[in-house]
Amino acid sequence: MDASVMSTFEAFIHDDRYTVPTLHLVSAFDEAGARDAADALLRASAHHLGVELCRNGEQIVQLGACEDRRLS
Q1: Residues 37-65 pLDDT 10s
Q2: Predicted confidence (pLDDT) at residue 2 exceeds the cutoff of 80
Q3: Rounded to an integer, what distance in angstroms lies between the CA atom of residue 63 and that of residue 2?
Q4: Exposure of 22 by Cβ count < 10 A (0-12 exposed, 13-18 middle, 19+ buried)?
Q5: Which of 5, 7, 12, 70 is 20 to 30 A from 19 via CA?
Q6: DSSP codes, 9-47
Q7: CA distances from 69 to 6, 20, 24, 26, 40 (A)
Q8: CB 24, CB 13: distance < 8 Å
Q9: How high is the pLDDT of residue 27?
């Protein structure tokens, strides 16, 4: 990835108030910056249980507790 160009990452926030993750778009110069942003999202609220960080639909990392909470 070119370090002079911002990339868009998807951050899916697992929140104890909702049954489905909330999507946030994260712009960063590199994966490390995106991970920092995902970590900040996780720490932004006690309701945030976990964050899945993805790029182009492929998961990069899971932070915290990310579980499938879909109804059966």
Answers
A1: 999 999 999 999 999 999 999 999 999 99
A2: no
A3: 25
A4: middle
A5: 7
A6: EEEEEEETT-SSPEEEEEEESSHHHHHHHHHHHHHT-TT
A7: 32, 7, 18, 23, 23
A8: yes
A9: 97
